[in-house]
UniProtKB/TrEMBL annotation:
Coiled-coil region(s): none
Lineage summary: Eukaryota, Viridiplantae, Streptophyta, Embryophyta, Tracheophyta
SMART domains recorded: FBOX
Pfam families: F-box, FBA_1
PROSITE patterns referenced in this protein's UniProt entry, alphabetically: FBOX (PS50181)
Domain F-box: 1-44
The protein, known as: F-box domain-containing protein
Length: 435
C-alpha cells in the first residue's frame, strides 16, 4: 500500500496507530521498519498518543504489587470495569527483581514509561525509566546531590511528560541535613531524556519542605505536585500547601490548600489525581488509620474550588486509597494486603474484593498507556523473552524457498489487514484523518 501513498500520508496514518501493532508493522518492509524506528517518528507518535483520545476508549489500568510468596513485584493490566477483568496483555514480566531489596518506588507512570526508584528501603541512587511494552529501560546517571557530596540528606522525585519539548523529565529535590534539620533552599536537578544528563536549577528555588519518605506525586496539566509545608515565623507554626513543578518552564509554583488542611500534620496528607485535577487525601493518622477524607480541586488552578468529597471509614481493616475509578468508586488496600473496590455513595457504601493479594504499601494503580519511548534510546531487558526491537523470523530453515516466500507474503498481508483495521479504528471519529 505504501507504494501508492505518499510517505507523508503513511507517516501521519502510522502516527495514529497504537504502539503495540506498530512493533509488528516494522516487519512489513525495510522502509516501514526504518520509519517506525526513527527518532523523529517516535517523537511524533509519543506526542500524538499524549494529545489524542482513541476512537475506542481505553479503559485499561496498570496494577503493581509485591508478592511475598514469589518475593518479587508483579505487574498486570486490567479493564476498569465492574469485575476488574484481566486484559489480554495481563502479565508484564518484571526483569529487575534482583536490583531492589523488596520492591521499587514507582515515582510515576506517564505516556507508557514507568519511573522507578530504589529508595524505599534505603537509597541506592538507582533511578530507571522503563517501558514495559517494548521491554527497554534506561538507568539514569548519578546526580550531584548524593551522600558522597553532601553527607546526610533526603530527596523526593517527580516524573512526567513535557509536552512543550516533547520529552520525558525527572526532577529531583534534595535537602542536605544539619543539626537543626533539613536546610533550605534544596538542590534541584532535572534529567531530560533527550539530553541524558542532570542539570541543576539555581533560580526560583522553593522555600518549602516535602515530607521525607512518605511523599507521593500527582502529575496533572504538565506539572508535578507534592504536599509541602513551610514555616510561618509570625505565628510560629508550619503551614501545608501544594508545591508544583512545571516540567515545560522548569519553575516552581504554589497552590493553597483548603483552610481545614493548612495546619494538619503534613505526614497525614498526600496528593492524588482525580477527574483530571488534583486531589488531596487526608488520613486521620499515618499508622492504624481510622478514616481518610478526600478533597478535590474541582477546577484545576482555582484554589477557591477545593471541595470536600467524602470520608472513607477504615475501621473494617482497610488501609490505603490507591486511585479513583471512572465509575466513581475507588481502589484501596486492606491492612492484610488485599485489593478492594469501594463505592462511597452514601446509599451504597459497598466494598468488593478484587482478588489480588500483595502487601498494603506495595500497590500502585494508574491508567495504562503504551508508547514507543526508549525504542532507540534504551537498553533491552529480556530475561529470556523474544527481542521486540528486532524483526521476528518466520518459517523453518528446512522449508523450501518457495514455501518461505509464500508464508512471508501471507504474513505481510495479515499485517496490512491489521494496519487497515487500526487505521479504521483511529479515523472512525475523525472527519479528516490526515490533519
Amino acid at each position: 500500500m505504501s507504494d501508492y501513498m505518499p510517505e507523508e500520508v503513511v507517516t501521519r496514518i502510522l502516527a495514529r496507530v497504537p504502539a503495540k501493532p506498530l512493533l509488528r508493522f516494522r516487519c512489513v518492509s525495510k522502509s516501514w521498519k526504518s520509519l517506525i524506528s526513527s527518532s523523529d517518528f517516535i517523537s511524533l507518535h509519543t506526542r500524538q498518543a499524549f494529545l489524542s483520545e482513541p476512537a475506542v476508549p481505553d479503559d485499561r489500568v496498570l496494577v503493581r504489587h509485591y508478592s511475598k510468596p514469589q518475593r518479587t513485584e508483579l505487574y498486570s493490566v486490567h479493564h476498569d470495569n465492574e469485575d476488574f477483568t484481566v486484559a489480554s496483555e495481563a502479565k508484564i514480566d518484571f526483569p529487575f527483581r534482583r536490583l531492589a531489596q523488596f520492591y521499587f518506588r514507582i515515582v510515576g507512570f506517564s505516556n507508557g514509561l514507568l519511573c522507578l526508584s530504589d529508595d524505599i528501603f534505603g537509597y541506592t541512587n538507582v533511578i530507571m525509566l522503563w517501558n514495559p511494552l517494548i521491554r527497554r529501560k534506561i538507568t539514569l546517571p548519578l546526580p550531584r546531590a548524593i551522600y558522597k557530596n553532601l553527607g546526610p540528606f533526603m530527596f523526593v522525585l517527580g516524573f512526567g511528560y513535557d509536552l512543550k519539548s516533547n520529552d520525558f523529565k525527572v526532577v529531583r529535590i534534595a535537602y542536605d541535613q544539619s543539626d537543626s534539620g533539613y536546610n533550605l533552599p534544596p538542590i534541584v536537578e532535572v534529567f531530560a531524556l533527550s539530553a541524558g544528563n542532570w542539570r541543576e536549577i539555581e533560580v526560583n528555588l522553593p522555600q518549602n519542605w516535602i515530607i521525607e519518605h512518605f511523599w507521593t506525586q500527582a502529575y496533572v496539566n504538565g506539572k508535578v505536585h507534592w504536599v509541602a509545608y513551610r514555616l510561618n515565623v509570625e505565628e510560629y507554626r508550619t503551614e501545608n500547601l501544594i508545591m508544583a513543578f512545571d516540567l515545560s518552564n522548569e519553575v516552581f509554583e504554589e497552590l493553597l490548600l483548603p483552610d481545614a488542611l493548612v495546619v494538619e500534620c503534613p505526614i497525614n496528607l498526600c496528593t492524588s489525581v482525580c477527574k483530571d485535577s488534583i486531589a488531596v487525601l487526608h488520613y486521620d493518622k499515618h499508622v492504624e488509620t481510622g478514616c481518610c477524607t478526600i478533597w478535590l480541586m474541582q477546577t484545576y488552578g482555582d484554589v477557591k474550588s477545593w471541595s470536600k468529597m467524602y470520608t472513607v471509614d477504615f475501621e473494617g481493616g482497610l488501609g490505603r486509597i490507591l486511585s479513583f475509578r471512572k465509575d466513581g468508586t475507588i481502589l484501596l488496600t486492606a491492612r492484610d494486603g488485599d485489593l478492594y473496590s469501594y463505592d462511597p455513595n452514601p446509599r451504597i457504601q459497598e466494598i468488593k474484593y478484587i482478588g489480588i493479594l500483595g502487601t498494603k504499601d506495595s500497590f500502585f494503580v494508574d491508567r495504562y498507556t503504551e508508547s514507543l519511548a526508549l525504542l532507540i534510546d534504551g537498553e533491552q531487558v529480556l530475561e529470556g523473552l523474544p527481542n521486540v526491537a528486532e524483526s521476528d523470523s518466520s518459517g523453518d530453515e528446512n522449508e523450501g524457498e518457495d514455501d518461505r516466500v509464500e508464508a512471508n507474503e501471507l504474513w505481510k498481508q495479515s499485517m496490512m489487514v491489521e494496519f487497515l483495521k487500526a487505521l479504521l479504528e483511529q479515523t472512525t471519529m475523525m472527519q479528516d484523518p490526515f490533519v
